[in-house]
Amino acid sequence: MLLTKKGLEKILQDWRASIPAELEKELLYEYGNLAADDDGHVFEYSEQDICEHLRKKLRPYTKNEDSSVRSG
């Protein structure tokens, strides 16, 4: 699977995240192109791989609406 601009926009909307344009470009470059390992073998990221990497990278940009409930 390759990440597209439309796919990233959908993920950002679903996760209620807003990211800088530079990060958007970086994510599309990294996950929107085929990747190669150290031996030069080309592979595509799975949807699960992309979602897991995005979850980690987008955490600081998501709106956490439950924080007030957990602090008490």
- The number of helical runs is 4
Number of domains: 1
Summarize the main sheet.
2 strands, antiparallel
User: Structural class of the secondary elements?
Assistant: mainly alpha
Helix-strand topology string: HHEEHH
Q: Got a strand count?
A: 2
Radius of gyration: 14 Å
Strand order of the largest sheet: 1-2
Whole-number mean pLDDT: 84
Measured by DSSP, the beta-strand proportion falls in 5-15%
**Terminus-to-terminus distance:** 41 Å
Low-confidence stretches: 65-72
Helical amount: 40-55%
Morphology call = elongated
Overall description:
The structure is a single chain. This protein is elongated. With 72 residues, it is mostly helical. The protein has helices spanning 5-14, 21-31, 47-58, 67-70; strands at residues 35-36, 42-43. The protein has one domain.
Annotate the secondary structure layout.
Layout: H1 5-14, H2 21-31, E1 35-36, E2 42-43, H3 47-58, H4 67-70
Quick structural overview:
With 72 residues, this protein is mainly α. It contains 4 helices and 2 strands, in the order H-H-E-E-H-H. The model is unreliable at 65-72 (pLDDT under 50).
Features:
4 helices, mainly alpha, two-stranded antiparallel sheet, disordered C terminus, 6% strand
